[in-house]
Amino acid sequence: MIATKDRVRIVETRVLSDDWYLLKKTTFDFLRRDGVWQRQSRETYDRGDGAVILLFNRQAQTVILTRQFRFPVFVNGHDGMLIEAAAGLLDNASPEARIRAEAEEETGYFVQNVEKVFEAYMSPGSVTEKLHFFVGEYQAGDRINEGGGVAAEGEDLEVIELPLAQALQAVRQGTIVDAKTIMLLQFVALNRTLEDSQ
User: Do 69 and 155 meet the contact criterion of CB atoms below 8 Å apart?
Assistant: First the structure.
């Protein structure tokens, strides 16, 4: 089997935008499985890697989420107010260090115990970002400030505590439509069920 790196020959790379993040257009030749080299062109949006955390109180069976305005979702027909797990870009920090800081900034909770559960590419057809997914245990006494995000970065987040069952119902009803949040809610629900059955 030929290594993937030997099946790709870069022909040209052009920067289309370097404003908010980096948008490039790359022309390359790709060796298909039938042995034929095919010329292709793709745009890639590079915003860096990120991390996301679902704060979960196992005893109370509740989760902490946020609600915030997302302009790209707004222009795609949604009202723009998404319910999400706390998340952010790594900005040269380790995933665990960054997600602890992000959880505190966005939710106001100081999270001591975090567990990395998986990694995933969220939109691999066009976005280079890889997300590191975490679950963190929280108690009511872990809240050290109001959260809400960093105003200077345009963040204005509402902090929401929901029973896990209600959050899962919100996924089914289409109220929670953020993919990273859905993935973490389903992970926690599945693993809670596995633990309860043992």
Answer: no
Any residues with CB less than 8 A from the CB of 198 and at least 6 apart, and which? none
DSSP character string of the chain: ---GGGGEEEEEEEEEEESSSEEEEEEEEEE-TTS-EEEEEEEEEE---EEEEEEEETTTTEEEEEEEE-HHHHTTTS-SEEEE-EEEE-TTS-HHHHHHHHHHHHH-B----EEEEEEEES-TTTB--EEEEEEEE--GGGB-S-----GGGT--PEEEEEEHHHHHHHHHHTS---HHHHHHHHHHHHHHHHHHH-
Q: What percent of the chain has pLDDT over 90?
A: 82
Q: In 10 A of CB 143, how many CB atoms? A: 17
Rounded to an integer, what distance in angstroms lies between the CA atom of residue 149 and that of residue 66?
Answer: 10
Confirm whether pTM is higher than 0.70: yes
| Cβ neighbours for 178, distance < 8 A, ≥ 6 positions apart | 82, 83, 84, 85
d(CA 55, CA 132): 15
- 21 token code pair: 């993040």
Going by pLDDT thresholds of 50, 70 and 90, the confidence category of residue 193 is low
Q: How far apart are CA 188 and CA 117, in angstroms?
A: 10
pLDDT digits (tens, 9 = 90+) for 18-63: 988 899 999 999 999 999 999 999 999 998 999 999 999 999 999 9
